[in-house]
Predict the 3D structure of the following.
Amino acid sequence: MNPRVIGTVRSHLVSRDQCPKYGDTSMPPVWIELAPDFEPAATDLQVGDAILVLTWMHKGDQNVLRCHPQGNRELPMRGIFSTRSPDRPTPIGLHAVRILGREGLRLKVHPLEVIDGTPVIDIKPDNAPPQGGAEFSSLVNPETGQAILSAARDGWLRGLFAGFNGNVSMRQGERVVITATGSAKGHLGPRDLAVVDLATGTPLTSVRASSELAVHLEVYRNQPLAQAIVHTHPPKLLALSLRAEGPLLDLPLFEGRVFADKLTRVPAHRPGTPELGQAVGLASRDFEAVFMDNHGLVCRGETMTQALGLSEELESLAGIAMPR
């Protein structure tokens, strides 16, 4: 039996003796080189995806039916189907890995504990549900997910979010990871993150994205520098907007001039509408912060720290500008 091979593993491991018995997170990443014929099948694989890699363990002995688990002869022999031994009648390996990089048809994955030259026979998404809500979905890069959770918590602690308002997102390749609708920003968990396709807005997870998804998508589409977006409801800036027309932060302060140049405001549109998204997206071409009349503030940044930090600066200046 020779299954159809879709690719080959390129690894630092060159013998079975060097291979750990399970995927060891301390080992370096390896590469999977996919065959050109399978380029259409790999189109949607992105950095950060959790996948299951099926390998053909070609060095395995297909006549073995019982073995000592992990090759430890001090352990009693067990039937091969209750072990992960590479010696088995049909030597298929199953490996839960995450994509750390991509160069065309080369996928950098971790952890994958097979020897160099091992054939790959299939790749599937790892759709196993998070256990107890403690893990991010297979489509959310853990670093991206944690950055969103931390920013939401920090913003809530600083009074930029209240209750269930506001939303936070990050661009992840050609996808957007965004907080779920109706989620409390100070108490988010991994299950409170939705993933959508950037080009179409198509949901890629069962979690429903924020009602302000259109704003986030339009900013990312219009401004290539945007990698993170924070939409807050800062109380001082909102109060100031109700008392002032035109520029919100007309202050004779150095900081006031610097940050006022980053801020613009757009007329009121109904929240969640395409019209609001388009207005904010166009404004984001020239400004890092957009105040939506009667609604709130949207700040973009190349990092989440930049986006949240700008929100904090503008709210602080609004407090100074408020009439006493």
